[in-house]
């Protein structure tokens, strides 16, 4: 069983352009609460639409709710996924494309086609059984397979791959160049992506144009997104393998945890055959780190705005606060398995943090998350970071776990300025890249290593900082950053939406009746103010600016699928 959207697995691609307003109506036909979050979409001034437990009440089973946000000053490749209850392991995800405005040229020639590939580890167990395993301290183990756009592997080896499995075929024309947007939407496994006999020209990652470099393959870690230009320059004596193979798992499991799709030229002379292209050596601990260090920001390219990306000289800004955030493997706290950041396992309150802040509800959270690990027993708490508006934070992630951990920050793109093995010290700053470290929203931290990021807190709201590895996240490895502008007369946040769902200590605020809102394109959308009546339509606040609006309806349901 998979979580499908509009009867599809994966869900439909959301294809928009910089500064468009997006209205997404979600009907939850699951038997449990649901939220969608938008990985890498910054939701400028609008954490109300972020779709995580700290900002939104869940959409209960049978209800519907409308997200409404602007893709303000962004371009690039992103994805959406379910943020609650381990649901991402069952699907519910899809790609997001934010195109440049016509007035801003691409820093490369217009590709002949645009192809989205969602690669993911896959576990045969249902998401609720996986969730129970994690709660019981069993762990996820190696995946049962790797999917390309929801499909299993091409039968590249009859001894490993059973007959009759559907696989992805990418049809191309010889001599043409295509943009491949590749997202690791899995839950725990780093994947190495490669196309047999073809170079991958990296051009963009998570909304930042990169220095253009060719790679034979790319390690794509959980939650990360990349764009490559791939030219069809081979003689097409046969089809070619597209491979996503697991990294850093034991060798006995790695063979089954390999996804294989097919690149098919229109003049291909036969099916793909023979061995897969070689992966990197798993025993070379520096290969993946050195590859990550080689990814650089294209400082001369314009992106969402005409001025070059490098106009923001992050290396010249004075750091206002430093956090060294240490993780550890899961351990028992009060008889339950929990993961922690700086000794605190996050406890999600029944009242979302953002609503508690809006209505001055005391006792829901504490603004006391420590800058470093403190000398005290680990605990479960709702402790968040008190971020200074327009402050410049340095955050060092220190990974004391035995696997690659990946961290994502909602609301921002941060600069990845350094990573290395060992323990971070003050002297590690001498290795920082202060000029063209890439700006992105998800970074990997290798086991026994550290990664340093810099982030400018210019987006007011409450923002989730989390492990993208789903088992770590589910057991408490997350924190929120509260960023409030003290000048209350300045309009730095969008007001509380009219269609807000209330829960927890604010459940009594759920209103009765139905209101309608006029969208900027002249169409009416509806807000069910008493969600308990389960109206068929719901909506969001009206759009103030006369810019392009795209309306999307998403029906979320469990689908039966045969996936080996």
TrEMBL record:
Transmembrane segments: none annotated. One of its GO terms (cellular component) is plasma membrane. It comes from the Eukaryota. InterPro entries: Cu-oxidase-like_N (IPR011707), Cu-oxidase_2nd (IPR001117), Cu-oxidase_C (IPR011706), Cu-oxidase_fam (IPR045087), Cupredoxin (IPR008972). Residues 2-101, 114-268, 351-486 form the Plastocyanin-like domain. It holds the Pfam family Cu-oxidase_2. GO terms for molecular function: copper ion binding; oxidoreductase activity. Keywords: Glycoprotein. Belongs to the multicopper oxidase family. PANTHER family: MULTI-COPPER OXIDASE, SKU5 SIMILAR 3. This is Monocopper oxidase-like protein SKU5. It comes from Rhododendron griersonianum.
């Amino acid at each position: 069983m998979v979580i499908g959207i509009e009867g599809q697995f994966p869900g439909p691609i959301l294809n928009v352009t910089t500064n468009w307003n997006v209205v997404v109506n979600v009907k939850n036909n699951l038997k449990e609460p649901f939220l969608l979050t938008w990985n890498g979409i910054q939701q400028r001034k609008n954490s109300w639409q972020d779709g995580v437990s700290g900002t939104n009440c869940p959409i209960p089973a049978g209800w519907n709710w409308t997200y409404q946000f602007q893709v303000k000053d962004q371009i690039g490749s992103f994805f959406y996924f379910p943020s609650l209850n381990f649901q991402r392991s069952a699907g519910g995800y899809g790609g997001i494309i934010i195109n440049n405005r016509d007035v801003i040229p691409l820093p490369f020639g217009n590709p002949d086609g645009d192809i989205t590939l969602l690669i993911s580890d896959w576990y045969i167990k249902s998401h609720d059984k996986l969730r129970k395993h994690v709660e019981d301290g069993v762990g996820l183990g190696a995946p049962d397979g790797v999917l390309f756009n929801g499909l299993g592997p091409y039968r590249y080896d009859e001894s490993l791959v059973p007959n009759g499995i559907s696989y992805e075929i990418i049809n191309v024309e010889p001599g043409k160049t295509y943009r491949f947007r590749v997202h690791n939407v899995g839950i725990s496994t780093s994947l190495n992506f490669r196309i047999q006999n073809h170079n991958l020209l990296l051009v963009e990652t998570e909304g930042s144009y990169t220095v253009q470099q060719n790679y034979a393959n790319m390690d794509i870690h959980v939650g990360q997104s990349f764009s490559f230009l791939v030219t069809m320059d081979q003689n097409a004596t046969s089809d070619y393998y597209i491979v996503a193979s697991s990294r850093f798992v034991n060798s006995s499991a790695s063979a089954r945890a390999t996804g294989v799709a097919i690149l098919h030229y229109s003049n291909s002379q036969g099916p793909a055959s023979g061995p897969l292209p070689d992966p990197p050596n798993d025993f070379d601990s520096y290969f993946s780190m050195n590859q990550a260090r080689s990814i650089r920001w294209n400082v001369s390219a314009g992106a969402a705005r005409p001025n070059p990306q490098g106009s923001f000289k992050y290396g010249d800004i004075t750091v206002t606060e430093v956090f060294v955030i240490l993780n550890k493997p899961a351990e028992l706290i009060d008889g339950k398995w929990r993961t922690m950041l700086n000794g605190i396992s996050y406890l999600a309150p029944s009242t979302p943090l953002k609503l508690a802040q809006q209505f001055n509800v005391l006792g829901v959270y504490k603004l006391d998350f420590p800058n470093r690990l403190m000398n005290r027993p680990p605990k479960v708490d709702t402790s968040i970071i008190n971020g200074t508006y327009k402050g410049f934070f340095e955050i060092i992630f220190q990974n004391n776990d035995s696997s690659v951990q990946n961290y994502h920050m909602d609301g921002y793109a941060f600069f990845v300025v350094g990573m290395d093995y060992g323990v971070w010290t003050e002297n590690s700053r001498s290795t920082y890249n202060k000029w063209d470290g890439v700006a992105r929203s998800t970074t990997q931290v290798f086991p026994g290593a550290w990664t340093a990021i810099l982030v400018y807190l210019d987006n007011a709201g409450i923002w989730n900082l989390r492990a993208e590895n789903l088992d770590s996240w589910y057991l408490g490895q997350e924190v929120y950053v509260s960023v409030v502008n003290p000048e209350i007369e300045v309009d730095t946040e969008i007001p509380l939406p009219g269609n807000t769902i209330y829960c927890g200590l604010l459940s009594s605020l759920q209103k009765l009746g139905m209101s309608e809102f006029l969208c900027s394109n002249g169409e009416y959308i509806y807000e069910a103010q008493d969600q308990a009546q389960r109206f068929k339509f719901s909506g969001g606040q009206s759009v103030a600016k006369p810019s392009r609006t795209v309306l999307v309806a998403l029906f979320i349901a469990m689908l039966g699928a045969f996936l080996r």
